[in-house]
Amino acid sequence: MENKLFVSSSPHITDKESIPKIMYGVTLSLVPAFIGAIYFFGIQSLWVVLVGVLSAVATEGVIQKLMKKPITITDGSAILTGVLLAFNVPAEVPLWIPAVGSMFAIAVGKIPFGGLGYNPMNPALLGRAFLLASWPTHMTIFKTAPTGGTLSGIDAITNATPLNVYRQAKDAIANQATLPAENVQEAYNAMSQLSDSYWNLFTGKIGGCLGETSVLLLLIGAVYLIYKRYISLKIPLSYIVTVALLTWIFGGTEGLFSGDPIFHVLSGGLMLGAFYMATDMVTSPVTYKGRIYFGIGCGILTVVIRLVGGYPEGVSYSILLMNLTVPLIDRYTKPKIFGEVKQK
Questions:
Q1: What pLDDT, in 10s, does the model give residues 3-20?
Q2: Quick one: which of 341, 339, 324, 265 has its CA closest to 299?
Q3: How many whole angstroms separate alpha carbon 21 and alpha carbon 41?
Q4: What is the mean pLDDT of the segment spanning 304-308?
Q5: How far, in Å, CA of 213 to CA of 39, rounded?
């Protein structure tokens, strides 16, 4: 009787995973993209990430200390937020940009709701949205060409990122009646050349935010996350397939079904968002159907913003908006309880 046992009802679930292990594991999966960022954009990338991480950790620690709450900076969640925030800014931004973004992400997007597990929106994306609204020039003008490439991924076009080239060319073709013929022809040439930039888009020889440009390196990290079962493919696949399908149907300049889905899948922050932002355990649905609906919703909003909105990229805002729908999605996709009889 000296060794008392605690008896509880089933199910009895044991798991070796923990919050710190998962957070550090996700951060580890971003190392290939981090190394790629330093290679493509220079040592400035290192300082941007370090400032983002240190600001996030310091903000969380200071606020918890002032509120006399348990200090949780060792669980890795603030570190991951700082890395993801830094991955969502251009490499050449002033270092106060990732600092302010990380502080906002923690102080506004995480702590006020109760900390990790209670935030309704992804803190890193909320920080990016704040930076984009407050300092759009710093966040949307890209000046650093990648090593061995150009901002656009096309040798003949060197002054704009791929999505900016697409948007400018599409707008010129749509308004060709009011433009000189040579400008319209340049727009058509640019659209055709974007299809030749697939390899540069895949490897990362393009301009863009610090951690989003190399699809290859992001996929390496994603394979690790899937292997460790930290994420599933439901959200990323439904998100990416939706973007591909809708941009194929509506994204062309020659009518329906003339778009370039491969370009849209490989460009911008879609891969970073699909595998690392939309799959956030706290702000994504828990049900099987819910995750598919969530990914489809992200895809629809992303395409609408890219094709119709005034901003060439739509990943961040689409995920943030869908984060707000997660309680409803979980509620209406809740599976029937085993043995439950439907009331007539």
A1: 666 666 666 666 677 899
A2: 265
A3: 30
A4: 94
A5: 12
Total residue count of the chain as it appears in this document: 344
Q: What is the pTM of this model?
A: 0.92
- Helix residue ranges per DSSP H, the chain: 19-29, 31-41, 44-66, 77-87, 96-107, 123-134, 136-140, 162-174, 181-194, 198-203, 215-227, 234-250, 261-266, 270-272, 288-307, 315-323, 326-332
Q: What is the pLDDT of residue 342?
A: 59
Indicate the SS3 state at residue 102: helix
Q: Are 126 and 108 in contact (CB under 8 A)?
A: yes
How many angstroms separate the CA atoms of 173 and 163, rounded? 15
Q: Taking each helix axis from N to C terminus, what angle separates 315-323 and 123-134, rounded to the nearest 10 degrees? A: 130
How far is C-alpha 268 from the geometric centre of its chain's CA atoms?
9
Q: Break the chain into its structural domains and give their ranges.
A: 19-140, 162-332
Residue 276 gets which letter from DSSP? I
